[in-house]
């Protein structure tokens, strides 16, 4: 493998905050998938809203994004269709709609998929891959963060990683697709202090919506910029009191949690800022009765 082809691997390895053992696993995944051709089943059925079959053929294009969603865990949490819609709008604006985004759902729970698609008004064709044929051909990682790929025109992997769950990965996708035509500004780094990164919301009813504030203090000599946030579940939303904070100022992030089921929970919000330890991971826990 050429040194040039390894560059995206080390960029992504730097992006993912992880323990030493995780770094070894991530390195193995990057090396394994870089330049690998993704195989597609000979027969694929695409639908709209998981009900109406559409005559959809994967278009010839310089790039395409493949999103594989397995049946393990919370589909809504992993998918977050509203954020995919935002990214697709950005890509369509930059490329004239020439980059298809292909969704493959490995699930027998078509009712849940249909509900999510209609709830978020997501009308792009999706493939319900109940027999998991795409995964059988390619043997994807079990880690949902590494089940999304940017492919070139020959279906070879350019980037592996989920641009919805990591904004730095999103920037790499956009930069690769547009050949750097979209300027991604990286302001100078500052330092921050976060007194509390985890809050227990206690026990509360499923009908309640809980709200809690986290404070990020800008302890450096440069302005603090909030680039964005990603949530581990779409039952969690985040609001901020400002996008830019002067030196010695404070950024207040309000996290709202609307439970979708009973029981104990742990939800995280990744905060992307111009700090060396970005993203900052904030955690809320509790029990829904």
Report on this structure.
There is one protein chain. With about 290 residues, this protein is α+β, with helices and mostly antiparallel strands. The protein has 7 helices and 16 strands. The protein has helices at about 5-15, 20-35, 75-80, 80-95, 110-120, 135-140, 165-180; strands at about 45-50, 50-55, 65-70, 100-105, 125-130, 150, 155-160, 190-195, 200-205, 210-220, 225-230, 235-240, 245, 250-255, 265-275, 280-289. The chain has a 7-stranded mixed sheet with strand order 2-1-5-4-3-6-7. A 5-stranded mixed sheet has the order 9-16-15-11-13, with no helix packed on it. It has a 4-stranded antiparallel sheet with strand order 8-10-14-12, with no helix packed on it.
Keywords:
289 residues, alpha+beta, Glutaredoxin, Immunoglobulin-like, 2 domains, seven-stranded mixed beta sheet, five-stranded mixed beta sheet, 16 strands, 26% helix, disordered N terminus
Task: Set out the fold topology.
Layout: H1 3-15, H2 20-33, E1 46-48, E2 52-54, E3 63-69, H3 75-79, H4 81-95, E4 101-105, H5 110-119, E5 126-128, H6 133-138, E6 148-152, E7 157-160, H7 167-178, E8 192-193, E9 198-204, E10 210-218, E11 224-231, E12 236-240, E13 244-245, E14 250-257, E15 263-273, E16 280-288
Parallel strand pairs: 3-4, 4-5, 9-16
Antiparallel strand pairs: 1-2, 1-5, 3-6, 6-7, 8-10, 10-14, 11-13, 11-15, 12-14, 15-16
């Amino acid at each position: 493998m050429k040194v040039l082809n390894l560059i995206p691997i080390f960029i992504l390895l730097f992006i993912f905050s992880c323990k030493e053992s995780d770094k070894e696993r991530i390195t193995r995944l990057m090396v394994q998938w870089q330049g690998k051709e993704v195989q597609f089943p000979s027969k694929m059925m695409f639908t709209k809203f998981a009900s109406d079959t559409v005559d959809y053929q994967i278009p010839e294009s310089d790039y395409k994004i493949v999103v594989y969603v397995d049946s393990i865990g919370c589909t809504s949490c992993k998918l977050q269709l509203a954020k995919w819609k935002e990214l697709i709008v950005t890509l369509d604006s930059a490329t004239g709609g020439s980059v298809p985004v292909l969704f493959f759902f490995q699930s027998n729970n078509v009712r849940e998929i249909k509900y999510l698609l209609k709830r978020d008004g997501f009308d792009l064709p999706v493939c319900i891959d109940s027999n998991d044929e795409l995964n059988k051909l390619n043997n994807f990682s079990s880690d949902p963060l590494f089940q999304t790929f940017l492919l070139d025109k020959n279906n070879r992997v350019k980037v592996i990683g989920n641009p919805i769950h990591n904004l730095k990965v999103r920037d790499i996708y956009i930069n690769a697709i547009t050949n750097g035509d979209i300027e991604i500004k990286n302001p100078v780094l500052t330092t921050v202090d976060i007194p509390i990164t985890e809050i227990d919301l206690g026990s509360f009813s499923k009908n309640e919506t809980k709200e809690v504030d986290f404070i990020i203090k800008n302890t450096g000599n440069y302005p603090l910029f909030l680039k964005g946030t990603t949530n581990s579940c779409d039952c969690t939303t985040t609001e901020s009191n400002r996008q830019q904070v002067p030196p010695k100022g404070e950024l207040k992030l309000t996290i709202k949690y609307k439970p979708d089921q009973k029981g104990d929970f742990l939800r995280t919000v990744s905060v992307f800022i111009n700090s060396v330890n970005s993203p900052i991971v904030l955690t809320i826990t509790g029990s829904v009765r």
